[in-house]
Structure formats: structure tokens, C-alpha cells
Amino acid sequence: MNRRLHWIPNMITLGNLSMGFVSILIASEATGNGPQSYILSGFFILLAAICDGLDGMVARALDATSELGADLDSLADLTAFGIAPGFLFYNMVLGEYKIDVFGKEDLFPIGMLIAAIFPACAAYRLARFNVAHDPSSFTGLPSPIAGITIGFLPIFLGKDHTLPHWLGIPLFVLIAFLMVSNIRYGKPQVAIRSKLSPLRAGLMLGAALIALFFVGFARWPWLVYGLICLYIFSGILTFLIHILQELRVKLD
């Protein structure tokens, strides 16, 4: 019976891939529509992340996990959280970066090369995860978090704001390299899944609604982006503390 149910989580995983593909198509149509298309493209990356979270939950609930589903999940993640964010950021920021080589008509597409860093790092990170991974933590920033970080930028900025290139490009490259780093990141879903009960789920939902009320529903992107940044910097801070502890032991 469980084998017959494999198609259910796999369809959700394909939804993840489809949302990423639609995000790419919308970003490609941004000419003349500008920030609104970028915002919508970012929303589809968020929808892909929701599908990515649901497929594993459904597979475990139905006891319908499979190697095919795991490999399919990696391919979907590469599309939604590697290629789509890279393409979105290229259209938003990097498309104008070209270097004259032999004349005005011979332009070296430096922006394309920078944009390619993101899907390349996502592909390597996902392949490394498939080969070996720790069930209690992630090695490197998870690709869904990395993809959301870039996809959420136009939503966070809004249609009336632009991203300073001196800030956006280093952030883009940093997030890409964090995916292939050896920095350890926790798995909040593991702790939540092991300790979650209906009462605790209700309390968490209530706390989220209260936080939204005080922050303001119009400012929910600030709350979401703040949580994302907190997660990213928690891994970096833990990594730095670990290095300092090792240096202290060597000096002693």
C-alpha cells in the first residue's frame, strides 16, 4: 500500500519544481513591469519552499519515503532554490554588468558569471547532501533557506525601493558560498517534530499572530527576513565561537 502512495509526496515535490520554473518565467517577463514581476517571482520561490516542506512531512506521515523521492527532491530544490534565485537576481541586478573586450559590441558577460555561482553552489551542496549528511544538522546553509533569502529580497524591498548593488552583490555571493561551506546549521524542524503537540502547535501559532500584530501586518516581510537572517548568522556565530575555542585550546 505504501508503494502505491509514493505518488502523493512526489507530486508535491513536482509542485516545488513547477513553482521554481514559473518563478523563472515571471522574472524573464520583468521588462517594462519591473519590481512587480520580481515580487511575484519571489513569491513563487516562497511557494516552492512550502511545497518542499510539505513533501517530506507527507512522505513520513504516509510512510511513503523512497530513493526516487529523495533524488526528485534534490532536482526540484536545484530548480527552485538554485536556478530560479540566480536568474531572478541576474534580471534584478547583474544584467547590466558587462565588460568591453574588443569593442563596444564585444561584451564579456561578467554579470552572467556571477549569477552562475548560485546554481553551481546549490548543485554542489545538494550532491554533497545526497552522498553523506548528518541527521541532526546541516553542513552548509540549506539550499531552501539560501533560495528564500534571495527570492525574498524583492518582497522585502517592495515596489518603491531598489537594492544598492554594493550591498546586494556581496550578499548574493556570500549566501551562495555559505551553501558549500562547512558551517553547521541546526535542523529546527527535527526539534519541533519531536516535541510538537497540538497544544504547543497552538501556542506557536498564537505567538506568531501576536508578533504579527505588534510588528504590523504590513511589515510582515521584516519579521520573516529577520528570522531568516537570525538563522543564517546563528550558524556563522557558532562557527566563529568554535574557531576561537580551538585557538584557545592550542594556545593553552
Description:
By secondary structure, the chain is mostly helical. The protein has helices spanning 7-28, 35-61, 67-92, 110-131, 143-151, 153-157, 165-179, 188-195, 198-215, 220-251; strands at residues 99-103, 106-108, 137-139, 184-186. It has a two-stranded antiparallel sheet. The chain has a two-stranded antiparallel ribbon with strand order 3-4. Strand 1 and strand 2 (106-108) form a beta hairpin. Helix 1 runs antiparallel to helix 2 and helix 2 (35-61) runs antiparallel to helix 3. It starts with 6 loop residues before the first helix and ends with a helix.
By helix and strand content, what is the structural category? Answer: mainly alpha
Number of helices: 10
In N-to-C order, the SSE pattern is HHHEEHEHHHEHHH
What percent of the residues sit in helical stretches (DSSP H or I)? over 70%
Explain briefly what this protein structure is.
With 252 residues, this protein is mostly helical. The chain has 10 helices and 4 strands; from the N terminus they run αααββαβαααβααα.
Throw out a few tags for this protein:
single chain; 252 residues; mainly alpha; two-stranded antiparallel ribbon; 10 helices; globular
Ordered list of secondary-structure elements with their pairings:
Blueprint: H1 7-28, H2 35-61, H3 67-92, E1 99-103, E2 106-108, H4 110-131, E3 137-139, H5 143-151, H6 153-157, H7 165-179, E4 184-186, H8 188-195, H9 198-215, H10 220-251
Antiparallel strand pairs: 1-2, 3-4
